[in-house]
């Protein structure tokens, strides 16, 4: 994902540590929708302390915040890394399940501030399979073009959490911090996208774009 050597784990990495726990919950017979029907809508990561590579503690995850709207259902997956009384890391992952609609509505045009700097990010062939082996998300939409087409995509798409992690590797936020992202459109494999960065007084605003916007986000200190 572009991270260099460090004494601490990258801010998104506990999500990978919890991936088996997440999969067990979302694929449980008690969960009300099929796992392959979920769309990753947004993600919020809060880092409270350094994340030691050899630290202890426990990962806790639970589902809370279900909303059954007219056009979609949303599900909130909460995860925490606690080391005794210390809360090291917290995440809110929001999924949606879209309901059928009679006609497609035009997407709203979102105005973005002019970026202060840009970085080109390559998404090479086979990246979905490489990240799946590490991240544990072996969804067919990320693996091969032929399997992605079965689910309505023109070719394979990269995991949203890879795109988030690649942005964090470039932005290099300090601890403590809060990272918020909203996933807008899939990033196809292979492709090239651009990370747009706009510094603000307490952090950065950023977006991943090509001809369209794929992701928008913020990093805030503290």
Write up what this structure looks like.
Helices cover 18% and strands 37% of the residues. By secondary structure, it is of the alpha+beta class. Strands 1, 2, 3, 4, 5, 6, 7, 8, 9 and 10 form a ten-stranded antiparallel beta sheet that branches. The radius of gyration is 17 Å and the shape is globular. The mean pLDDT is 90.
Please give the share of residues in helix.
10-25%
Euclidean distance between termini CA atoms: 24 Å
**Uncertain spans:** none
Figure out the total of helices: 5
Average pLDDT metric: 90
- According to DSSP, the number of beta strands is 10
Oligomer: single chain
Strand percentage lies at 35-45%
Cα-atom radius of gyration: 17 Å
Order of helices and strands: HHEEEEEEHHHEEEE
Give me the secondary-structure topology:
Blueprint: H1 13-17, H2 19-26, E1 39-47, E2 58-63, E3 67-68, E4 72-83, E5 86-98, E6 117-123, H3 127-135, H4 145-149, H5 160-171, E7 177-183, E8 191-200, E9 203-209, E10 213-221
Antiparallel strand pairs: 1-5, 1-7, 2-4, 3-4, 4-5, 6-8, 7-10, 8-9, 9-10
In short:
18% of the residues lie in helices and 37% in strands. The protein has 222 residues and is of the alpha+beta class.
What are the defining features of this structure?
222 residues; alpha+beta; ten-stranded antiparallel β-sheet; 18% helix
